[in-house]
Design goal:
By secondary structure, the chain is α/β, with parallel strands linked by helices. The chain is 39% helix and 19% strand. The protein is built from eight helices and seven strands. Strands 3-2-1-4-5-7-6 form a seven-stranded mixed beta sheet, with helices on both faces. Helix 2 crosses helix 6. The radius of gyration is 17 Å and the shape is globular.
Length: 225
């Protein structure tokens, strides 16, 4: 946070702000528009939706260590827990929310800042689990574009941030184009209804929060087939 305040105009930090802010805004706007009452946050991290909005039941799924650290921060700050916590490593374990109270009705799922860390096997396992959700369930996920679909700003971001995440043992494993994500989701029973890029929201900006061809946000609906 200190770096963002002091060097917020740096291209990499500005790129991180654009990417994270847009994907969260899109997910929460689509959640409210959907009218669904169950919200599943995959890879929840420090997400604060449950603390800000009590209109839906929120299930936060995250690595046990990350989830424990967040709950300790909430307790230290005196902030009541407002979500159902599901400790799970998506790269290693099957996703099953029924034992945690997920009702047999459509749910809204956000999968933000996670997909790029998973390999093909883990992606398939998670989507296979999500395919068990009731028809009408919605999914919003962001994905990183492969190098041939990125522009200079996008490639600069991946070179800098990708190297940093790899250095701490969390390499980016998956890059997908729009046709690939559409086919992947369709194989698991989800039909894409929106696929949005940064230019759809930020075109024409002259400040540091300029759009890049770096990542996209896709929204898909669980079909009845």
């Amino acid at each position: 946070m200190t770096e963002l305040l002091a060097y917020g105009d740096h291209p990499v930090l500005a790129g991180a702000r654009v990417r994270t802010t847009l994907r969260s805004r899109i997910a929460e706007d689509r959640l409210h528009a959907s009218g669904l009452r169950q919200y599943v946050v995959l890879g929840a991290g420090l997400d604060t939706f449950a603390q800000r909005d009590g209109r839906v039941r929120t299930f936060e799924v995250d690595h046990p260590a990350s989830q424990s650290a967040k709950r300790e921060l909430l307790a230290a700050a005196g902030i009541p827990e407002a979500a159902t916590h599901v400790p799970l490593d998506l790269a290693k374990a099957d996703l099953d929310l029924t034992p945690h109270g997920l009702a047999p009705e459509p749910a809204f799922v956000s999968w933000l800042g996670v997909l790029m860390y998973l390999d093909a096997t883990a992606l398939d396992a998670t989507l296979t689990a999500l395919a068990r959700l009731a028809a009408g369930s919605e999914l919003v996920a962001d994905y990183l574009l492969p190098s041939h679909l990125r522009d200079e700003a996008g490639n600069t971001y991946v070179e800098a941030v990708g190297a940093m995440t790899a250095g701490r043992g969390e390499p980016w494993r998956t890059f997908l184009g729009p046709d690939e994500i559409r086919a992947l989701l369709r194989r698991h029973g989800f039909d894409v209804v929106e696929d949005l890029g940064q230019h759809d929201f930020l075109a024409g900006r002259a400040d540091s929060l300029r759009p890049a061809h770096l990542s996209r946000v896709v929204r898909a609906v669980r079909s009845g087939r």
